[in-house]
Amino acid sequence: MKKSSIILATIALPLDFLMLFLAGLSAYFLRFNDFFTKIKPIIFNLSFDKYLPIMFSVIMGWLVLFALAGLYSSKPTRRLTSELSRVVFACSTGLAAITIYLFFHLDAFNSRFIVLAGWILGIIYVSCGRIALKIIKNLLYRSGIGTKKIAIIGTGRVSDMIAETLRQRRGFGFMVAGQYPNFNQSTIADLNELLAKKQLDDILLTSLKTDENEVLAILNFCQENHLDFKYSADLFSTYLANISIYAVGGIPIVEMHKTKLQAWGRVTKRSMDLVGSIILIILTSPLLLFSALAVLLETGWPVIYKNERVGEAGKKIMVLKFRSMYQKYCIGAQFKNQTEALNFEQELIKTKSIKGGPVYKIKDDPRITKVGKILRRLSLDELPQLFNVLVGNLSLVGPRPHQPREVDLYSTRQRKVLNIKPGLSGLSQISGRSDLEFEEEVTLDTLYIENWSLLLDLIILLKTPFILFKSRKAL
């Protein structure tokens, strides 16, 4: 590894030490500032000479917690939000440890102000340091300093996606030195030329159909030339991300789970759905009433449209929406003229659908009312789905629910999105909403299922309002 790469990979530790040191100093001198001493006089005797070794001990302990929180891992694609949340978690754990220590040693340190100020300033200073480091890294990477030159071997969509992502996201610290369909003599000649120019550090294999001999040849080439070898996980390797191992009669059994949402994960997610849906129903109640009244005044009853969708494990559910179409065009058991409505929709799908795959999307849909267009554009038509979340057949976050006739056309791989409850919002919804191609939607929903975490749900929920208030085409 080049010296610049080593420096960029290891600079976080001394930077965190410096930020915590400054936070400790700031907390101490703030306590002795005239402003705070007037509010609460100092009744303890803590000289700076005595405080300094205590501060260093706390800093070293917090750095250990930072390491345990994964803040010094070399994962290049970690998002800044994830990093900052780990900083808050590690600092809060450090505060908890100090609080417990002081509880059993009341005479050891009796300035609660310094402890609380150190915690708050520690989070702020370390976060600022991490943000500054991220900005500096991005600037250096874009200038070609510290980047790792990588050659991609493989063909197909995965290979192209990775290459395009690395070219666009220079902040990951990789520069695509070359892209080759397979590992043959021509490729070896090009790679040797790159090595001679010192323009190659890694080789990434992306093809899932590479035979064993070719893989071994690539590995040998990497070992001979001191290159790092990487490969994209195949389908089975992806499943292995969610496994548990236990013994039956002394024989190890490996169980591959459909998702990370197991046991306590499901309990936590359901609890968040319950609390979140109640809060959101209360907050949006004026919009719910206004939307219902608008639909009623324009086209009468029913105001709510019960839309049959497919939920978790293929179960049929009724998703609630404000009716945005004229009644004669609505499809469902609550409406008449079903044969005519279905035939008209099929004709529209054939002539006006702008989406491929099993899911359709009709442009300039003539069935939508004037109020319906406004409700759809502002996503107000979906607000009643909060009651689906409350009942439990939808989640706040999950894959987009689709109609049974659409799900019937899913491929085996695409049916993986049925492993968890569909969601009011989700990774695909905040990444392009209904403008995504169905295959892209499935890829994002599968990624969410395989990498679910409470933090990911919170991030998606925080991003959702910003996506909702963007202008949406009421097709």
In the predicted model, the low-confidence regions spanning at least 5 consecutive residues are none
Helix residue percentage: 40-55%
Terminal CA distance reads 53 Å
> Which strand-content bin applies to the residues?
5-15%
The computed structural class is: alpha/beta
N-to-C order of helices and strands: HHHHHHEHEHEHEHEEHHEEHHHEHEHHH
In this structure, how is the largest beta sheet organized? 4 strands, parallel
User: How many beta strands in the DSSP annotation?
Assistant: 10
How many helices? 19
Care to describe what's here?
By secondary structure, the chain is an alpha/beta fold. It folds into 3 domains: 3-142, no CATH class; 148-232, Rossmann fold, CATH 3.40.50; 264-468, no CATH class. Helices cover 53% and strands 11% of the residues. It has helices at residues 3-10, 12-31, 34-39, 48-68, 80-104, 112-142, 157-168, 185-196, 212-224, 235-239, 264-283, 285-299, 338-352, 370-377, 385-391, 404-407, 427-430, 438-450, 454-468, and strands at residues 148-153, 174-180, 202-205, 228-231, 243-248, 251-256, 304-310, 316-322, 395-397, 423-425. The strands form 4 sheets. It has a 4-stranded parallel sheet with strand order 2-1-3-4, with helices on both faces. A two-stranded antiparallel ribbon has the order 5-6. Helix 2 runs antiparallel to helix 4 and helix 2 packs antiparallel against helix 6.
